[in-house]
Each structure stands twice: as C-alpha cells, then as structure tokens.
C-alpha cells in the first residue's frame, strides 16, 4: 500500500469520527496527536469554535518528554491538571482515528487519574 493511500484512509477515519464526536461548552472535545518527535493535546469547545486548553512538548516545560508511553503518561497527568484548573470535569475524547491502545490509552488513563470523566 503506498503512502498516499494510507494517508487518505487515515483522513477518512478522522472525518468519520469527527461527524459523531462533538464538543460542547459543558463537555469539550479533547484530541491528542502523536508525531515522531512531539505530543500535542487540545481541549476544544466546538460550539464556540475555540480552544479551551492546550499542551505540547514544543513548550519549554516539556522539552524532555518523548512521544512514548512515559511521555504520554506525563502529558496526560499535566493536561488533566490543566483541565481541572479550568473547571472542566467531563470531556469527549477524540482519538483522531487511532486505535485505543498504547500511547493513546496511557494518555487517557493519565486524564482519568486527575478525575476527568469521559
């Protein structure tokens, strides 16, 4: 399977999921993206169309984190704490077309450790 077809199928999965997953003011959507070098997480209110909270390993605080299981766990804890400070207790989790295992699962468990419900 060539690279173009793989990317095309991944994009279709993301679109199919996004049709069903909507974030509201009371339950914003949390999406996480793992690249080869970084982890990006956002909490998005789709009704208003703005980002409530975000965290990335590009910032100075997280330069030492890698996009592996340990980094995902740490990022989940820190991002869960950030959500709690903003008064967010329930979310809708958007895994962006990826399977719920490995880094995605560890990130979600880190959020749950900070009493974020989804």
Question: Could you explain how this protein is built, in words?
Answer:
It is a single chain. By secondary structure, the protein is α+β, with helices and mostly antiparallel strands. It has one domain: Nucleotidyltransferase, domain 5, CATH 3.30.420.100. It contains 3 helices and 4 strands. It has a 4-stranded mixed sheet, with helices on one face. Helix 2 runs parallel beside helix 3. It is globular. 26% of the residues are buried. The mean pLDDT is 93.
What is the share of helical residues? 25-40%
How far apart, in Å, are the first and last alpha carbons?
A: 35 Å
* Count of runs of 4 or more consecutive helical residues: 3
**How would you classify the helix and strand content by structural class?**
alpha+beta
Task: State the order of secondary-structure elements, H for helix, E for strand.
Answer: HEEEHEH
Instruction: Provide the number of structural domains.
Output: 1
Task: State the CATH class.
Answer: Alpha Beta
Task: Spell out the key features of this protein.
118 residues; four-stranded mixed sheet; Nucleotidyltransferase, domain 5; 39% helix
Q: Secondary structure elements and their pairing?
A:
Layout: H1 3-20, E1 29-34, E2 39-45, E3 50-56, H2 69-85, E4 92-94, H3 103-113
Parallel strand pairs: 1-4
Antiparallel strand pairs: 1-2, 2-3
Helix pairs in contact: 2-3
A few lines on this structure:
By secondary structure, the protein is an alpha+beta fold. The protein contains three helices and four strands, in the order H-E-E-E-H-E-H.
């Amino acid at each position: 399977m060539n690279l173009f077809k793989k990317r095309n199928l991944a994009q279709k999965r993301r679109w199919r999921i996004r049709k069903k997953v909507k974030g509201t003011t009371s339950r914003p959507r949390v999406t996480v993206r793992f690249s080869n070098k970084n982890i990006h997480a956002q909490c998005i209110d789709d009704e208003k169309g703005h980002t409530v909270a975000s965290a990335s390993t590009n910032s100075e605080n997280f330069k030492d984190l890698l996009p592996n299981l340990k980094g995902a766990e740490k990022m989940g804890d820190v991002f869960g704490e950030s959500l709690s400070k903003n008064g967010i207790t329930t979310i809708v989790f958007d895994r962006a077309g990826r399977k719920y295992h490995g880094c995605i699962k560890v990130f979600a468990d880190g959020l749950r450790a900070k009493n974020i419900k989804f």
